[in-house]
Specification:
Blueprint lengths: L1 H21 L2 H24 L3 E7 L3 E3 L3 E10 L8 E5 L10 E3 L7 E9 L4 E5 L2 E6 L6 E6 L3 E6 L24 E2 L5 E7 L11 H7 L3 E6 L6 E5 L15 E2 L5 E2 L4 H18 L4 E6 L3 E7 L2 H12 L9 H8 L8 E6 L7 H9 L3 E6 L2 H5 L3
Parallel strand pairs: 2-10, 14-17, 14-19, 19-20
Antiparallel strand pairs: 1-3, 3-6, 4-5, 4-8, 7-10, 8-9, 11-13, 12-13, 15-16, 17-18
């Protein structure tokens, strides 16, 4: 492109010099032609990247490892001149998200759309955009880029594995004190009625009170008197082990292969266990140093699972906080009869003393140990 433009510049100079030296009108006419060609090409290339409307529609700002992330792009020519070609370059940080595209000729008021489907291969928070729009003139003399700085965020949750059975958490003895705490979940403990609020499900309406009062009333519930489950995730960097073939990939048929390192194994175990207990309707809390202190108080429902998965998506093995220190510092959060699930790759017995202290307080301790030795020997 630059060589073509330089050639036109040279011809223009030669024509102008020939006209000035010889005085013949032919050379002046050629000078006008080359000058008009350069000016027209410049303006065409400038108009080609302007009067263009481009939009990207993200169906969801949340995705999960191993699943498909969808985006739809729309380019519209809002000007009067046709756009012979447009190149859309996407600078998104989502791995494998190849949204760049070459748009064919767009006439006046016409649209062009394309859809991008990307299989998420890495958890974390990523940026969608910015975009760069490139186009030029029909002769290939000029090309103008147009930078579109608009960006958005997408978070990719860790992969989860369906669990059909897990160690049962310990409940409170029969006749124990009920938990006097209101909940939006439907439980067996109805505590009364209240006015209907937008968003309340129809199956919560108390029809007798509604008929008597002449307006909608819904049933109010309390949490079941069951023990809470606490999930402690150990991300001590001294226990981090990575196999030589540690990169994750998508296998034939869309199957996902987990990266072979203790961090990803621990995070995936924690995510799968969280999904299991939330599906069972249990109150679940979460504690980890990711490397910042992350404490999520026990709760139920899909919103609680979303909070935990978001914390796990950003978790990194960058803390020097050992498992023994984690149990000693955060153990006060656990009440009697709670169940503690430890997910760790830390071997040895340095943390067993702290775990024994929690058991003496009446807690039920379950340990999920990732075998770091097997990963270190993996070839």
């Amino acid at each position: 492109m630059k060589n073509r433009r330089n050639a036109i510049y040279a011809l223009l100079v030669v024509s102008l010099a020939g006209g000035l030296l010889s005085g013949r009108t032919f050379f002046f006419h050629m000078t006008y032609v080359f000058g008009f060609l350069l000016a027209a090409s410049f303006l065409w290339a400038w108009f080609a990247v302007n009067w263009v409307r481009i939009g990207r529609q993200t169906f969801a700002r949340r995705a999960q490892v191993g699943r498909v992330f969808d985006e739809r792009f729309t380019v519209q020519n809002t000007g009067y001149l046709p756009k012979l070609w447009l190149e859309v370059r996407d600078q998104s940080t989502l791995p494998g998200h190849n949204a760049s595209h070459v748009v064919p000729t767009l006439f006046q008021r016409r649209k062009y759309q394309w859809k991008v489907e990307t299989i998420c291969t890495k958890r974390g928070q990523f940026t969608l955009g910015p975009l760069t729009l490139n186009s030029g003139d029909p002769f290939g003399l000029f090309q103008f880029p147009r930078h579109i700085a608009a960006t958005s965020k997408v978070i990719v949750y860790p992969a989860t594995v369906p669990l059909y059975e897990f160690a049962a958490p310990m409940g409170k003895l029969s006749g124990g004190q009920a938990v006097r705490r209101r909940t939006m979940e439907v439980t067996t403990n109805a505590s009364g009625v209240r006015d209907y609020a937008p968003g309340d499900s129809l199956n919560r309406i108390h029809w007798k009170t509604t008929a008597r009062r002449g307006k909608f009333f819904v049933k109010d519930f309390e949490l079941d008197p069951l023990s809470d489950v606490w999930l402690f995730l150990d991300l001590d960097r001294s226990a981090y082990v990575e196999a030589p073939d540690s990169s994750g990939s998508v296998q034939a048929g869309g199957a996902w292969r987990l990266p072979a390192n203790t961090e990803e194994y621990c995070v995936t175990c924690a995510a799968s266990i969280s999904e299991y207990f939330i599906d069972k309707g249990r109150g679940l809390g979460f504690v980890a140093y990711t490397p910042f202190r992350e404490v999520i108080q026990p709760d139920r429902g899909d919103r609680q699972l979303t909070r935990i998965l978001r914390a796990l998506a950003l978790a990194k093995s960058e803390t020097s906080f050992t498992l023994a220190q984690l149990l000693a510092v955060e153990g006060h959060l656990l009440g009697r009869d709670n169940t503690l699930v430890l997910v760790t790759a830390t071997g040895g017995d340095a943390w067993l003393g702290e775990a024994e202290q929690l058991k003496r307080r009446g807690l039920h301790v379950i340990t999920v140990l990732v075998n770091a030795v097997s990963l270190a020997r993996r070839t």
